[in-house]
């Protein structure tokens, strides 16, 4: 073959390969968010790398961010930065629901996710006409599943403006915008009236609060008397040993890579709920057998991670993705290893479920 023909063949093959990686394979999990759309939230593309560096140095010592008062106050702003950095990558590689679910035999991840979300609606006994609060709603995957399953109206709150816009756009596309609303705000001081919701839920979100009392107290305030609240909490389990360096490494890795100001222990959750006035109706780690592992979805994707990593590198070189995306993607890859380790050793669960009730009368609440 002549040199010119060889060069042409190589060029065409190269372009074909990039096209295949980016446009065909680039939409890793759910069609809709493609690799070429990785914007990093509302951060100006020239600032992505700096914002990532600031985030990383803030969460380097996660436990201190919760215990030191001045740092604790800064947590919501850094959580906001975190979601600017990761929201597009999450949507691209995971979907519109930013949480884990127990695997279901013979069923897709999408089905398992929906079942885990519909469980919330069932626990809340949600029905048409109810007004539910989604505490830390992300881009609204759970909100839409719960509204569709129960017929209720849902109001979501998230600290991240970019997620508000994404969620509203998804709600419109799903034809659910008349029943699903999203507001930007801090779940530790919410812009809602007292006793204005029939039920509330939080899915893998309250772990971002330095003090759980601050979120639970707010949910208690906005719930009607008798109203139910379900939360899926990220916690360390009784198997966690602070003197085991492997355990410490996994838990620190989870905290640093997920913007967490220190994970709480499983046995702390119910007492915090009671402290703010809730009755504990049920408490259960949904990750325990017979539930199948939630972390297999992370493990089975090694080939996909490798491909995604290549995609973000190519897009950064082509200047389609902003500088810094490679670093954020790398951080998430490492976080996935720590989460998997946490799941396999059983020292961590992302789905410690509590079902709480605001007492029906003030007298009952005071006697707690
Ligand atoms: C509840 C929270 C988020 C939980 C999960 C939705 C995310 C935790 C780790 C994330 C991911 C890790 C690896 C990424 C991979 C390298 C990339 O190619 C595609 C996206 C990932 C799979 C990404 C997806 C979302 C997570 C699983 C926390 C923040 C409280
Ligand atoms: C891991 S995501 C889960 C989102 C959603 N529950 C889901 O399952 O798809 C955590 C969410 O909590 C929100 N969040 C974290 N801290 C917050 C705060 N202080 N106030 C409001 N929202 C917050 C984030 O913005 C994000 O939307």
UniProtKB/TrEMBL annotation:
Residues 82-359 form the SAM-dependent methyltransferase Erg6/SMT-type domain. Keywords: Lipid biosynthesis, Lipid metabolism, Membrane, Methyltransferase, S-adenosyl-L-methionine, Steroid biosynthesis, Steroid metabolism, Sterol biosynthesis, Sterol metabolism, Transferase, Transmembrane, Transmembrane helix. Its EC number is 2.1.1.-. It is an enzyme of class 2 (transferase). Pathway: Steroid biosynthesis; sterol biosynthesis. CDD domains: AdoMet_MTases. InterPro entries: Methyltransf_11, MeTrfase_SMT, SAM-dependent_MTases_sf, Sterol_MeTrfase_C. GO terms for molecular function: 24-methylenesterol C-methyltransferase activity. The chain crosses the membrane at residues 6-24. It catalyses: 24-methylidenelophenol + S-adenosyl-L-methionine = (Z)-24-ethylidenelophenol + S-adenosyl-L-homocysteine + H(+). GO terms for biological process: methylation; sterol biosynthetic process. Belongs to the class I-like SAM-binding methyltransferase superfamily. Erg6/SMT family. PANTHER family: 24-METHYLENESTEROL C-METHYLTRANSFERASE 2, PTHR44742. Catalyzes the methyl transfer from S-adenosyl-methionine to the methylene group of 24-methylene lophenol to form 24-ethylidene lophenol. This is Methyltransferase. The lineage of its organism: Eukaryota, Viridiplantae, Streptophyta, Embryophyta, Tracheophyta.
């Amino acid at each position: 073959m002549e040199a010119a023909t060889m060069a042409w063949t190589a060029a065409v093959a190269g372009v074909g390969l990039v096209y295949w990686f980016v446009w065909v394979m680039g939409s890793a999990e759910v069609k809709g968010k493609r690799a070429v759309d990785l914007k990093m939230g509302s951060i100006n593309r020239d600032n992505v790398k700096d914002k990532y560096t600031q985030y990383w140095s803030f969460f380097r010592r996660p436990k201190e961010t919760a215990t030191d008062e001045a740092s604790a106050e800064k947590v919501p702003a850094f959580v906001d930065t975190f979601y600017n950095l990761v929201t597009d990558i999450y949507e691209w590689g995971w979907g519109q629901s930013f949480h884990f679910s127990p695997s279901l035999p013979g069923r897709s991840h999408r089905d398992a996710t929906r079942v885990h979300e519909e469980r919330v609606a069932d626990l809340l006994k949600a029905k048409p006409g109810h007004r539910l609060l989604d505490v830390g709603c992300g881009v609204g995957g759970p909100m839409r599943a719960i509204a569709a399953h129960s017929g209720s109206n849902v109001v979501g709150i998230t600290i991240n403006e970019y997620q508000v816009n994404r969620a509203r756009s998804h709600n419109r596309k799903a034809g659910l915008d008349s029943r699903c609303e999203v507001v930007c705000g801090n779940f530790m001081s919410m812009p809602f009236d007292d006793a204005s919701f029939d039920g509330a839920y939080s899915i893998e979100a309250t772990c971002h609060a330095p003090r759980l009392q601050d979120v639970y107290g707010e949910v208690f305030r906005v719930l009607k008397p008798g109203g139910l609240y379900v939360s899926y909490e990220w916690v360390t389990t009784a198997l966690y040993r602070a003197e085991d360096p492997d355990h410490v490494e996994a838990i620190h890795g989870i905290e640093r890579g997920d913007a967490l100001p220190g994970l709480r222990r499983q046995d702390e959750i119910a007492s915090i709920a009671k402290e703010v006035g809730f009755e504990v109706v049920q408490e259960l780690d949904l990750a325990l057998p017979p539930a199948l592992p939630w972390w297999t979805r992370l493990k089975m994707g090694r080939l996909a991670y490798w491909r995604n990593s290549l995609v973000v590198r190519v897009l950064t070189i082509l200047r389609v993705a902003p500088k810094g995306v490679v670093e954020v993607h790398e951080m998430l890859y490492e976080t996935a290893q720590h989460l998997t380790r946490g799941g396999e050793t059983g020292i961590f669960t992302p789905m410690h479920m509590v079902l709480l009730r605001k007492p029906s009368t003030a007298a009952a609440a005071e006697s707690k």
